[in-house]
Amino acid sequence: MTNKALVIQNIQSLTFDANSFMSTRNLVAEYCYTRLSALSAIKTKRYRCVVVSMDMVREDPIEIISSLRHVETELGLSPTQILVVSGPRQATHAEMAQFNISAQIRSHQLK
Predict the structure, then answer these.
(1) Where are the domains of the chain?
(2) What is the CATH T-level fold of the domain 4-105, as seen in this structure?
(3) Those residues with Cβ within 8 angstroms of residue 60's Cβ, 6 or more apart along the chain or in another chain
């Protein structure tokens, strides 16, 4: 199993310390800032988890997650664990179930 995690966000999030979160879990973060770059990454590499910021402004994070799941299905890959980082916007229970989202992170202290 790889120790890489894909982090998808517009900019460095002030509400989530990705580096601290990754280091406590012995993960190395790779960053993507758009849906297209995230799709390119998921097509070429496998990640232990994908962390998606719900605070994205330019793109809808749920649409990004939907696209990632579509690519996994299309390529016959098993679903990667997806975690969402909540700010003012949170994923609904329906979205979490529909897209197989593992957890919502409200701080870097997810246990």
Answers:
(1) 4-105
(2) Rossmann fold (3.40.50)
(3) none
